[in-house]
């Protein structure tokens, strides 16, 4: 099982943005849509062994967390284009309006859940049965990592993780790098997926 | 210099599609938008050493070819999201309406040109000063290729290249593979870019 956890610092936590201008109105939910595309899609195929956590921390009601569970998602739910993926996020944010219980996940679609889980909650739930890696350009080169069993990759958005998040991950998640440059989140996910496929 | 040539068999050659539903109305111009994103964008950066040829062969007026020249493109022209990239393609298709000369390129924006060049024309222009590779899952593993100088990668869209295109490329472009699975065009471009960065 591969898990990707994406912390989006500015992504809106209510469906108050325009599909016509995701980058300008949503706190970069476009980036999250492309990350879903990279995490799940093959050419005419779908990765059932992938889980994605999107952790949204923008206005007006942070945090909102959307979990995508590859093994449960129905065919044709995850389409490649940004607009259709943004519509799923909108649906999740609508279900997530006004939820109170911090630890409970609410169903949105088969395999899609929304909650008020915080970044730290996601990490704590994940670490129980997965090795954690934090993708960062200053990490250990990915080809020198000995991947075994369930693996989880933590990524930031266009602003990267905040210092307190990095501090929280220290000792929990090894820093791993796909290269010396700073790459877009969706490109890193695509690279990691193909890299791991080739190890098998 | 890195060049990516993408042959899109069904991509519309006039701006007769809807931005609200690119996958359903444009012959998959959404795929071309994500390919531009993968080819050019770094996190807070832009790859000036990249050229992209989009070769559109869908209705109603094929072929239309749009060249993106990284070294000439102005900052903030290539944004990450599909809609803003689709707007550039629309602009190019509008400039391309009714052009007659098959060999002439018309300016759309700084670094963006439109023409009636055919796939074969693009290949012939490129091969003069670049080594050609055809990205295909049955090709030679990319890590065993000895890349030198200018390199060009030919990719298909969601349907892949037609048999006659493959026949045309035989002996001209070595088949290279990033892995045994069939990956989305934009994921392959992201992978190749990061892979080549790491060789330097």
TrEMBL record, chains A, B:
SUPFAM superfamilies: alpha/beta knot
Lineage of producing organism: Archaea, Methanobacteriati, Methanobacteriota, Thermococci, Thermococcales
Main location: cytoplasm
Protein's GO biological process: tRNA methylation
Domain of life of the source: Archaea
Broad class of enzyme this protein falls into: transferase
Identification of the protein by name: tRNA (pseudouridine(54)-N(1))-methyltransferase
Species name: Thermococcus litoralis (strain ATCC 51850 / DSM 5473 / JCM 8560 / NS-C)
Record's GO cellular component terms: cytoplasm
Keyword match Methyltransferase: yes
